[in-house]
């Protein structure tokens, strides 16, 4: 089996499984981090979502700290911190503190969406200041806070100054591609739930990239879904957990992560199926051989620098096995 030779990483929204509570979801998040660290994954990122009873990823920086405490070498970061909800200074102080405790293990992925509905965004206090539109300024503020003492203004992040925490721009449309290219920062595209603009965003980022003190050439991380199992048939059954997850999104319902089912036909309507499948169409699914073929075809087309995988699988052992299979494919084992 040839080596595809690409770093692979993990994104976790920290979902609550049916029959479990918040504590079990957090324990499962740590357990998966420890397992994927042993497999040799590059980084483990945790999302930010608010007012969502089926996800525990609201206080992202606390979950990152908890994961750092319980792992040894894997990089841990945010996928992402949604800047409309946060003061850049507070983010710099929190991440600067973590980087001081856990040097060279922290990543800061930044998003411009609030990661919630508008009522909740308002309750988070920052949305009154049109903070979505101040995203480029907020990113620049963070880069300054993490930079050398000589570049600081009057307001400084302590700890934070000179920690040089790597900053990544997250995007699900073309806006962030322009910004990541202009600032010369790595770009992470969210094809795991919003693939509509992926070709255009990748092209914009690569064509417009301006070398910076952070990066000499474009660095593109591509986030997609992976459902891998011992056979194609077994993977297709496990896929129904993810399909139910996306049906939740389509319907605006709040069901915990559910076990796989034999058929989705009686669960969703054709329009719901079409919408859910459109959102989740960038998914590697099947046996090791199938995953290898799909990933090879993907890389022949896009040649991204790193894959970040999301696996919505109900059984934690099967979820770990899915990540294991992906790593085996990449390593040529």
Report what the structure shows:
With 333 residues, the chain is of the alpha/beta class. It has a single domain (8-232, 283-331), classed as TIM Barrel. The protein is 42% helix and 15% strand. The protein has eleven helices and nine strands. It has helices spanning 22-39, 60-69, 88-101, 118-123, 135-145, 175-183, 198-208, 232-251, 270-279, 288-302, 316-331; strands spanning 8-12, 43-46, 75-82, 106-111, 167-171, 187-190, 220-228, 283-286, 306-310. It has an eight-stranded parallel barrel with strand order 1-2-3-4-5-6-7-9, surrounded by eight helices. Helix 1 (22-39) runs parallel beside helix 11 (316-331), helix 3 (88-101) packs parallel to helix 5 and helix 6 (175-183) runs parallel beside helix 7 (198-208). The longest helix is centred in the last third of the chain and has 20 residues, at 232-251. The protein is globular, with a radius of gyration of 19 Å. The mean pLDDT is 94.
């Amino acid at each position: 089996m040839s080596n595809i030779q690409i770093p692979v990483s993990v994104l976790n929204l920290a979902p609550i499984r049916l029959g479990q509570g918040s504590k079990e979801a957090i324990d499962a998040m740590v357990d998966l981090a420890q397992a994927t660290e042993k497999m040799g994954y590059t980084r483990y990122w945790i999302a930010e979502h608010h007012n969502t009873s089926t996800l525990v990823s609201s206080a992202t920086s606390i979950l990152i700290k908890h994961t750092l405490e319980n792992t040894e070498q894997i990089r841990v970061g945010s996928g992402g911190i949604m800047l409309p909800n946060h003061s850049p200074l507070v983010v710099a102080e929190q991440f600067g503190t973590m980087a001081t405790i856990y040097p060279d293990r922290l990543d800061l992925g930044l998003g411009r969406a609030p990661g919630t509905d508008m009522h909740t965004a308002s309750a988070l206090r920052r949305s009154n200041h049109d903070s979505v539109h101040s995203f480029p300024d907020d990113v620049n503020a963070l880069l300054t806070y993490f930079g050398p003492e000589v570049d600081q203004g009057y307001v400084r992040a302590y700890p934070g100054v000179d920690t040089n925490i790597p900053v990544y721009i997250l995007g699900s449309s073309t806006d962030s591609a322009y910004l990541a290219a202009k600032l010369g920062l790595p770009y992470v595209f969210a094809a795991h739930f919003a693939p509509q603009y992926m070709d255009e965003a990748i092209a914009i980022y690569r064509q417009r990239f301006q070398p910076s003190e952070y990066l000499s050439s474009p660095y593109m991380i591509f986030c997609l879904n992976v459902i891998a199992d011992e056979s194609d048939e077994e993977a297709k059954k496990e896929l129904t957990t993810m399909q139910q997850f996306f049906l939740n999104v389509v319907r605006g319902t709040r069901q915990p992560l559910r076990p796989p089912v034999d058929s989705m036909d009686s669960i969703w309507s054709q329009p719901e199926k079409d919408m859910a499948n459109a959102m989740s169409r960038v998914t590697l699914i099947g046996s090791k051989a199938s995953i290898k073929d799909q990933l090879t075809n993907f890389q022949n087309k896009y040649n991204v620098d790193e894959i970040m995988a999301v696996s919505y699988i109900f059984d934690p052992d099967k979820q770990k096995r899915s990540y294991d299979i992906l790593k085996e494919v990449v390593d040529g084992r």
